[in-house]
Amino acid sequence: MAQRVTCRRVYEDTSAEDGKRVLVDRVWPRGLRKEAAHLDEWLRDVAPSTELRRWYGHEPERFAEFRRRYLAELRDPEHREAAGRLRELAARDRITLLTATRDPDHSQAAVLAEWLADGSGG
């Protein structure tokens, strides 16, 4: 499944290779009109909690700990339905996980792509 899940910035142009386009941010991307995003789904409930997101602050040196905490959050009841929906999408189609962050390689989208590719569900 690794080749079927990619992640990138929501502000980038769409591609024929995208498959299903899924926004995985809790907050709508600043300055982006909904129709310009060309989304198939917005799974805000799969995003990290506000508390975890604020702690992380997109500081790459905190990424390993962010990843560990976020994977634990994905097992929490408030994330379970959205995480299940994301697994369903990835099982059926090629998907692109979208985020507004400037560094998608150190984001929840990257963690989710790895999580989905692993197939263990956490």
Folded structure, characterized:
The chain has five helices and four strands, in the order E-E-H-E-H-H-H-E-H. The chain is of the alpha/beta class and 122 residues long. The protein has one domain (2-118). Strands 1-4-2-3 form a four-stranded parallel β-sheet, covered by helices on one side. 28% of the residues are buried. The model has no long low-confidence stretch (mean pLDDT 92).
The strand line-up of the biggest sheet is 1-4-2-3
* Strand element count: 4
Treating each run of at least 4 consecutive H or I residues as one helix, how many helices?
5
- Structural class, from secondary structure content? alpha/beta
Rough outline: globular
- How is the main sheet built? 4 strands, parallel
Low-confidence stretches: none
As a percent range, the share of strand residues is 5-15%
Order of helices and strands: EEHEHHHEH
Number of domains: 1
Give the helix proportion (percent range).
Answer: 40-55%
What oligomeric assembly is this protein in?
single chain
Taking all Cα atoms into account, the compactness measure Rg is 13 Å
Cα-to-Cα separation, first versus last residue: 15 Å
Task: Provide the residue-averaged pLDDT.
Answer: 92
Task: Give structural attributes.
4-stranded parallel sheet, 122 residues, alpha/beta, 4 strands
Compile the SSE list and pairings.
Layout: E1 5-9, E2 20-23, H1 34-37, E3 41-42, H2 50-56, H3 63-73, H4 77-92, E4 95-99, H5 108-118
Parallel strand pairs: 1-4, 2-3, 2-4
InterPro entries: YeaO-like
Protein name: DUF488 family protein
